[in-house]
Amino acid sequence: MANTAQARKRARQAVKQNAHNSAQRSTLRTAIKAARKAIQAGDKAAATAIFQASVSTIDSIADKKIIHKNKAARHKSRLAAALKALSA
């Protein structure tokens, strides 16, 4: 248990930050699932639009250092490859 006022405050901040980061990660997962679902549906125009929105979300969350930049790049690359395979 935190003994000093500073440690108690940091513990409170950690709880808030954890809740915020969890919500952001949830948003990330939702964006990736939406892109995958759109690609699965087969409509290239709709899938492209959702892909662009997903990339924006992924970049935003990576910029905030909630996920690592390489993980963000990996997600974007795999979604782009799936989208490209849709047109082939």
Automatic annotation (TrEMBL):
InterPro entries linked to this entry: Ribosomal_bS20, Ribosomal_bS20_sf
The entry's keywords: Ribonucleoprotein, Ribosomal protein, RNA-binding, rRNA-binding
Annotated Gene Ontology cellular component terms: cytosol; small ribosomal subunit
SUPFAM superfamilies, A to Z: Ribosomal protein S20 (SSF46992)
Signal peptide residue numbers: none
RNA-binding as UniProt keyword: yes
A single GO BP: translation
GO terms of molecular function: small ribosomal subunit rRNA binding; structural constituent of ribosome
Keyword Nucleotidyltransferase: no
Ranges for region Disordered: 1-26
Pfam families, alphabetized: Ribosomal_S20p
Family of this protein: Belongs to the bacterial ribosomal protein bS20 family.
Function: Binds directly to 16S ribosomal RNA.
Protein name: Small ribosomal subunit protein bS20
Organism: Pseudoduganella namucuonensis
